[in-house]
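Try this one yourself first.
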């Protein structure tokens, strides 16, 4: 009889404990939910470089203060702080995360191993001029989007599928590609001049964009269509400051988004640009509820992610605190702080505290945070 009572007592404790665990899993803390909404860059290569700064990113990952990281091959924050022009600064190697294939694989494996939940590990590997994983470091080259726009759709898919498999092997689970920007202005400093658009024909952009996305997806990657609502007509670069496309924007730039978002999979993300387009709103798209709502009206219910919040178009005009508040209330689910134009080793932790305070002060609703958390959770469940 005593044994039966003991077993019943143990069973009861187990049931209660299990119930508590289920409750907290279904009702995560505010801190945990906010952490999932933050992605940052960092200093260090996991092989002993910048130990103090690398320790900071380790602590932020372990504590759940951030839910994602992005790797760069060149960090230019120190050079910009010295007053160097951004174009010139990008020509230099300074405190990068990427040295070679084995180093990157070890770094990503380690970062993933210390995360309490799946860590989003992102890279900008579009091809052509935008490749963080460069051939000179031992990585296979990828053609530019402009080059792919001239080949058949199957070739675009095959190249993206091969890329996706290699990224998975390296420990990445997000590629911030492909671009759905239409090549309206071939001289656009951020898009056309860098051959980042598939075509000046929106139909071709839709077809190659979908092929590239399917290739990454079939390999197990998440991918990000960018830059909503279209950056291809811009005459200036949002890295440097305000970029107003009101007079140059063409209605057909929305076509690729209309074509592809209605069939978006759980591993699809949408990155919103910092461009100002008064046809939609007077605010930059990334902090405009009116503009971001257009993504939802097109039927997309996945993760919306900001472009780098450190870019001049946002950081110089609004400052971090105000920009964060506006970006979340506008509907962004993840905020990216590249930590590459300016650097703060505790950026993720600071932003986390900032957002929590905003929620407690009533500037951001907790329900808004919960919406984003659910979408991010679904995204993470969809990738390898």
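Now uncover the answer:
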């Amino acid at each position: 009889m005593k044994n039966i009572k003991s077993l019943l007592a143990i069973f009861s404790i187990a049931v209660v404990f299990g119930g508590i665990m289920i409750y907290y899993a279904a009702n995560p803390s505010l801190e945990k939910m906010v952490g999932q909404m933050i992605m940052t860059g960092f200093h260090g290569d996991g092989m002993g470089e910048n130990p103090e700064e690398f320790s900071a990113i380790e602590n932020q990952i372990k504590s759940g203060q951030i839910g994602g990281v992005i790797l760069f091959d060149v960090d230019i924050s120190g050079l910009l702080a010295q007053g160097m022009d951004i174009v010139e600064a990008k020509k230099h190697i300074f405190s990068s995360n990427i040295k070679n294939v084995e180093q990157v694989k070890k770094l990503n494996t380690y970062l993933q191993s210390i995360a309490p939940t799946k860590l989003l590990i992102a890279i900008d590997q579009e091809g052509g001029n935008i490749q963080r994983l460069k051939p000179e470091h031992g990585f296979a080259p990828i053609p530019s989007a402009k080059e792919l726009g001239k080949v058949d759709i199957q070739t675009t898919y095959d190249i993206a599928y091969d890329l996706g498999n290699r990224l998975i092997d390296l420990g990445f689970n997000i590629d911030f590609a492909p671009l759905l920007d239409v090549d309206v202005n071939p001289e656009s400093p951020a898009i056309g001049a860098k051959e980042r658009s598939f075509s000046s024909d929106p139909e071709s952009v839709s077809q190659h964009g979908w092929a590239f996305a399917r290739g990454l997806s079939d390999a197990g990657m998440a991918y990000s269509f960018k830059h909503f609502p279209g950056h291809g007509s811009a005459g200036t670069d949002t890295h440097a400051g305000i970029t107003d496309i009101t007079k140059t924007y063409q209605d057909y730039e929305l076509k690729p988004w209309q074509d592809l978002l209605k069939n978006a999979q759980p591993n699809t993300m949408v990155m919103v640009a910092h461009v100002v387009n008064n046809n939609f709103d007077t605010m930059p798209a990334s902090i405009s509820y009116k503009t971001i709502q257009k993504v939802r009206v097109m039927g997309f219910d996945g993760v919306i992610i900001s472009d780098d919040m450190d870019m001049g178009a946002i950081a110089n005009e609004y400052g971090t605190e105000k920009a964060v508040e506006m970006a979340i209330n506008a509907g962004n689910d993840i905020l990216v702080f590249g930590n590459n134009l300016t650097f703060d080793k505790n950026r993720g932790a600071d932003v986390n505290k900032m957002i929590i305070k905003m929620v407690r002060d009533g500037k951001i609703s907790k329900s808004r945070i919960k919406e984003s958390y659910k979408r991010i959770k679904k995204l993470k469940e969809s990738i390898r």
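Discussion: The chain has two domains: 1-29, 36-381. The beta strands are 38-40, 68-70, 120-123, 125-127, 130-131, 174-175, 222-228, 268-272, 303-306, 335-337.
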